[in-house]
Design goal:
Blueprint lengths: L6 H24 L16 H19 L17 H25 L11 H24 L6 H7 L1 H5 L3
Length: 164
Amino acid sequence: MSDAPDPSLLEALLDSWDHNNIILRNLLRALPEGGLEVRAMAGSPSIAELLTHIHYVRLVFVSEDAPEYARDLPEEWVAERDPDRIARLLDDSAQVVRDAVRGRVEAGRDMDLHYDHPILLLQHMIWHEGYHHGQIKLALKLAGHPIADAEAGPITWGVWMRKT
């Protein structure tokens, strides 16, 4: 890894990670009654399983790339029915990723297995979670429970674009 980055740049990148987690939790909170059980089609993971998969993937990549920040790995595809528990899991794993990236960047250390730079872990996670965000919205639409653009915009794009 090269010289230490501008601290304000690191903060902006970590802030983008926080925004990503807020958007995911907002989507969770916008699910209709029974939404966690929705599947795009038979054999597809449920929305609950997609969300617990996201939690798992965050933790498994940290365990492989910055094991000093690792937590015990949960099961991957869990059909959790409690949205409050899922929100707590997402918050917890988001903090683990945040801490791992900050720690490795500030220490000037590369990741152990993947990525040429710790920031690439954040980019991978945001891309991965955006992919599943789209799957969740499509599954809801196919099940006859679409989230209207007027509702989705402020809780997703609005979070990214809103100045503080």
